[in-house]
Structure formats: C-alpha cells, structure tokens
Amino acid sequence: MASHFRRDARAEGVANGSSSAGKPGSRKAAIVIGLTLLALALLGIVLFVLWSRTNGESKESGSRGEANVETVSPKTDGGNSSGEPAGSGLPFSLTGVSSNAPVVKVKEGEAKASLADEWTFGGDYREIGSFPIDGSTVFGSFTDDPDNLLSYTPALIGTSGAKRLGGAPVDAGDGYFEPQDGTGNSKQVVWRSARVNDSNAFGVDDWQISCWSAKDNEVRVLAGAESVNGRKDTPSIVGEVVPTANDDYAFFASNVLAGDSSWECDVLAMPVDGGDVRKLGEGSFPAGVSGGVLFATSRVSDGHYAKVCSARNDSLAAAKTRLAVKSGSDQWGVTGVWASGNYRAVSFSPVNGTDQTYVGLWSGDFEKPVIWLAIPSGSVVASMNDRWFVWGSGSQGENAGMYAYRWSDGKTLYLGTAKGYSRPAVSEDGDVVMVPETDGNDAARYHVGKLD
C-alpha cells in the first residue's frame, strides 16, 4: 500500500510539472504515507520477534535435527583434581583428572538430523555395516546368500556394491569365522570375527582378530582365542569391546586362561605386521592412540573397572594410571574408553544398575574436561574422531536414540532411533557418519552421509 501511494505522488508531480510539497492535499497524503510506513515497521518488528521465538523454540526442541539438551549441573569444582565431588552433580568423583564440566541430559529431538550426500545400503542381511571409512565406503560384511550363515566375508561396501577382502569363506562349520565389528581407515582396518558352528555354546567367544592393509591388499589373522588359550571354549567377557589399533599394534580384550581352570580378562597387543601376542595384564576396553594405548584396569566387578591407564608401544608392560574412580554409597566403574587425536572419552556405570551411564569428554589428553553426558542406559556403544563423538545404547531395547556431539562448539544432534541396534559410527577423519535404522525386527538399513 505504501508503494502504491508513492507511485501516485510521483505521477502527480510529474503531470503538474511541479513538486507537491507544501500543498494542503500533499501534506495530508504525506501524513497518511508516514503513518502507513510506521505501521508496517511495527508489523515487521512483531513478525521478527515471533520468528525469533519460534526459531529459538525449534532449536531447543530439536525440530531442525538438534537434540534436546538439559543442563543438570554447571561447572562447580574449580578445576581441582582432588577427587572430591564438590557438588559436581556426579554420583562419583575422579582422581588424576579434573571433572570440572557441565553435566547435561541429552534427549531426542522432534526430527532426525539430515545427512549431506546421503546414501543407504542393507535392509536384507546381504550387507551389514560396521563403520564408515569415507563418504562413499563402509567396512562391514557381505554375502550373496543371506540364508547361508557361513557365507559372510569382510568387505568394503560402497555406493556401487561390495568388494570382498581376502578369499571366499570356508563353508565348513568348524573353520568358518563370521566377520563382525572393527575400526580403521582407508589405509588399515582391524576387526574381530567369531567362530560359527552347530555346537556353539552360549557364553563362548572363540574369536579371531584380523587386519587388512591397503598397501598390499592382504588380510592377516593376527591372533585368536584358540591360539592364546589353546582351546575353543574361551568364555565371553562382560561389555562390548571392538578391536582398535595404532600404526604398530592392534589391541583387544579377552578372557585368558590363568592356571588350569580360572579365567581373567586381559588386554592383548598384537603387532599388525604379525608376531607374538603380548599380554598387557588384567583390564578391558582398549583404545589405540598414537604411540600407545589406553585401557581400563583394576576390576571392580565383571565389566566395571576402577582405573584408566596408558601404555606406550615401546614399554607396553609399564602402564601408567591416568584416572581413578572414587565412588560414594553406590559402586561405579569404568565401562568404556575411546580416544582420537587429543580427545578422550570414558563411560562410567553403576555396578548394581542398568539405567544410567555418565560419559566424560576431555580435550588435550585428559587435560581439560569438556562435558558430562548423562545417558539413561546401563551401557554405551560409541565412536569418535577429532570432530565428533557419536553414541547409542547398543542392543538395549529402551532409550535407543542415537546422538552426535561436536567437539568444536558443543552442537548435539539427534540421529534417530534403532531399537536393539543403537550403534552409530563415525569415520576416523571428517564428518561422515553411519546410522542404522531398524524397528528391532527387520534387518537394519544403514544411512551414510556427512554431519553438519
């Protein structure tokens, strides 16, 4: 309407050959125009405020893919490392590192975060994903016949199909090992397999650790439960352990025979070029870092540990304590360790409980605490690089949401829900994530793309 008045005013002035300013009719028109502009300006301000509020509410509720984040407790302990709770909001305290970081609860958003350059695979048990290597390639297992449980091989799964690593599987019950989870990048992948046969007993984990090198395109078996213990009935350990590696060693945790009949969960180091397995001692949840490894030790109960230690490649037996847990009335222990570059993550869960885990994130090799994630699950399956920490509840049926936390600014995304298979994974480099999708009954379908 204002532009309509302006056009008429200009037309009138031009037709009369003079300016309309100073005439009574012109002053009236000017007043009308001024009031109209003022009304439009006020309307614009109102609309902007309403938009801002709506946008803010959307961000809080996660309608644009962001998760709901509720701060439970702010920073409180002033950076001390005495181990005293000091009102930190945690049900335990730590020695050796500071726990001075906010405690937050992360909840589902209203919509899943979108992935850039997204592609999908799976959904019919022919291709099963483990982790992304880059934007177009995932490591996992592949078969031409999903009805044959003894036909899966490790593979690089891409947008144009799957490439097998190593030879065809041995179709014999006593000799077939099913490829499962691993870690790695475009240069090297390490993964665990488990023997599958008709006589498999519940609670037995007859595992193998293998390594693929892109340099020579060869697959090497680095170690196995049978070679370590001299028998095929090694008991499963408590907690999920995925093999990890640095340039020289692959690391894993397994029950190791101590004496004639007792078992102890130990951390094992295996040279990636082949060689004798080294036993680092009692512990679990290894995380390979440049020149060494982190792992949990000092068992509190099965799957729970009191300390996190570090060891260097050149002195693996000389482990150094990095942090220790001091519990209150309830016993808490370390239930997961992850590392990438100068970032570290450790999960803590109660010994007598299945509905709560706290994950602490640090930068600078445990130098600076970043945040505490309060997760309503007894365990956490996670993956991380120097840009993102992604996690889910693994095989838990409840609280099956998946999330991604960005180190640089604390942005937290909701990735969706996969009941019974809540296990997202991020590439070692960059922003590429793999997110499974399933209702808990059908085969998982995997979404691969870039986080933003």
What order do the helices and strands come in, and which of them pair?
Elements: H1 2-16, H2 24-61, E1 68-73, E2 92-95, E3 103-107, E4 116-122, E5 127-134, E6 137-142, E7 153-158, E8 161-164, E9 177-184, E10 188-195, E11 207-213, E12 218-224, H3 225-229, E13 244-245, E14 249-258, E15 262-271, E16 278-282, E17 284-289, E18 292-301, E19 304-312, E20 315-327, E21 332-340, E22 343-350, E23 357-363, E24 368-375, E25 381-384, E26 388-392, E27 401-406, E28 412-417, E29 425-426, E30 432-437, E31 445-450
Parallel strand pairs: 3-24
Antiparallel strand pairs: 1-3, 2-20, 4-31, 5-6, 6-7, 7-8, 9-10, 10-11, 11-12, 13-14, 14-15, 15-16, 17-18, 18-19, 19-20, 21-22, 22-23, 23-24, 25-26, 26-27, 27-28, 29-30, 30-31
Helix pairs in contact: 1-2
Please provide a written account of the structure.
The chain is 13% helix and 46% strand. By secondary structure, the protein is mainly β. The strands form 7 sheets. A 6-stranded mixed beta sheet has the order 1-3-24-23-22-21. Strands 2-20-19-18-17 form a 5-stranded antiparallel beta sheet, with no helix packed on it. The protein starts with a helix and ends with a strand. Mean pLDDT is 84; it is low at 1-33, 45-62 and 75-87.
